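Design a sequence for this backbone.
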């Protein structure tokens, strides 16, 4: 097929040679061309018109067939990135997309290894070209509105790759497979957060287990909303779960199961080391009390500042304003006292939460100090921890199954790969243009042929007479 791909360049070379011959002949005989007898001159080509037509038809047929065969044998491959982030120049994991990765040395090396190709990475890189539809546009980078990000990339493989015992389409197929696998591996969604580990639970205080398991559960609940916002109606085929229903299960685990376990521990005052736990709670409460005093001091300072404001300074100001619906209203503008009031409220709320936490720590420490729990209660607590771990692992497994099903369906659409077949009309128009140029050159040569013969005959005649005179002189 590489010889077929050379047919069109050879035909173009033939047309170029015809024009070179035509130009040369024209300058040699231009002085002998009739000025007013052009119609008569064209009449001399009547016998050659059929020959020119046949030659043109043959040229067109060969050129068209060669272009079509070359286009089918060495098609272009179109990569269309159709996920949402592609239009922003990003990968699915929101990292920056780099088009040079498509033909990177790492990708090409894998293509060579997978296909068993006898070619170097450098040579294969020279035979592959990457382009986008935007390459033909002249973008003015000074205008932000003109900046565009391409989501389509055209890859073409030169027919010269056949010299290495393969063909362009096989190379492009290998490239598409290797790049897709690399893209999914490195730039698709990362679900490693669903891999839960409970190694830290070994020897942990019973009440601390609640906080640890809640933290692990929050990892799951924070991961699901991203997919839910993309496709809230997506449902797993196996169990019919949706992202919202699974999120609700996780919230129930946190709000019901963990609270029941926490209440059981507090009720029985269970602790692995009551004295250490009590000391830790006392130290924690001292720190919390310090923070509470800071909040209350900040609250009091702002209340005092509010009381120092003059009554005339605390009056609000109304400013004429238009809302989003272009309707007129009077907007109240905040003054300094309003900001002080908001900050005082925030500090008071923070201090209130700290008081609740201090009370909880004190109650937990008191329960642990006065506990008379039996070994059966501790065994039951350990059993509850194992059940909570198993339930959380089950939720993580369900989350992975649901997300994997969604991601698998989404990954199928990350990159659409198609091969561009040659356009019959486009190739016919190109072949017709080349044929027209060739026929024009041949017609010009046909018109100039009689004059060129006369020129050559005239150029050869003086030389012949000179030779005859030389012969007569020699005989005498």
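Sequence:
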């Amino acid at each position: 097929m590489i010889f077929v791909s050379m047919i069109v360049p050879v035909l173009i070379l033939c047309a170029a040679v015809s024009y070179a011959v035509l130009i040369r002949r024209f300058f040699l005989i231009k002085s002998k061309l009739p000025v007013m007898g052009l119609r008569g001159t064209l009449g001399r080509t009547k016998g050659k018109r059929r020959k020119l037509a046949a030659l043109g038809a043959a040229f067109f047929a060969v050129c068209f067939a060669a272009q079509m065969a070359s286009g089918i044998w060495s098609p272009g491959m179109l990569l269309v990135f159709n996920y949402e982030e592609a239009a922003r120049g990003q990968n699915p994991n929101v990292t920056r997309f780099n088009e040079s990765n498509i033909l990177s040395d790492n990708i090409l090396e894998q293509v060579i290894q997978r296909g068993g190709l006898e070619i170097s990475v450098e040579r294969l890189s020279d035979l592959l070209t990457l382009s986008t539809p935007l390459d033909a546009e002249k973008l003015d980078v000074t205008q932000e509105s003109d900046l565009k990000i391409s989501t389509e990339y055209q890859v073409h493989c030169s027919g010269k790759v056949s010299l290495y015992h393969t063909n362009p389409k096989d190379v492009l197929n290998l490239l598409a497979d290797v790049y897709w696998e690399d893209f999914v591996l490195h730039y698709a969604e990362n679900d490693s957060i669903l891999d839960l580990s409970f190694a830290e639970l070994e020897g942990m205080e019973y009440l601390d287990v609640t906080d640890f398991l809640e933290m692990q559960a929050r990892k799951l609940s924070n991961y699901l909303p991203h997919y839910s916002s993309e496709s809230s109606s997506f449902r797993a085929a196996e169990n019919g779960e949706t992202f919202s229903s699974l999120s609700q299960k996780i919230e129930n685990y946190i709000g019901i199961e963990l609270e029941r376990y926490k209440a059981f521990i507090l009720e029985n005052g269970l602790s692995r080391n009551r004295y250490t736990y009590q000391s830790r709670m006392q130290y924690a409460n001292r720190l919390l009390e310090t923070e509470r005093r800071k909040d209350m001091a900040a609250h009091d300072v702002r209340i005092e500042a509010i009381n120092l404001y003059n009554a005339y300074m605390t009056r609000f100001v109304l400013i004429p304003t238009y809302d989003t619906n272009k309707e007129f209203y009077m907007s109240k503008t905040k003054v300094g006292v309003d900001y002080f009031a908001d900050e005082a409220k925030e500090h008071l709320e923070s201090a209130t939460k700290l008081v609740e936490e201090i009370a909880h720590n004190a109650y937990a420490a008191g329960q642990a100090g006065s506990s008379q729990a039996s070994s059966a209660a501790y065994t039951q607590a350990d059993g509850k921890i194992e059940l909570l771990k198993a339930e959380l692992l089950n939720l993580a497994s369900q989350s992975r199954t649901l997300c994997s099903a969604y991601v698998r369906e989404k990954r199928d659409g990350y990159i659409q790969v198609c091969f561009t077949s040659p356009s019959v009309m486009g190739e016919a128009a190109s072949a017709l243009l080349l044929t027209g140029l060739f026929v024009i050159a041949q017609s010009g040569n046909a018109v100039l042929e009689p004059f060129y013969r006369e020129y050559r005959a005239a150029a050869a005649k003086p030389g012949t007479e000179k030779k005859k005179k030389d012969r007569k002189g020699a005989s005498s």
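Strands lie at 76-81, 128-131, 152-157, 317-322, 328-333, 415-420.
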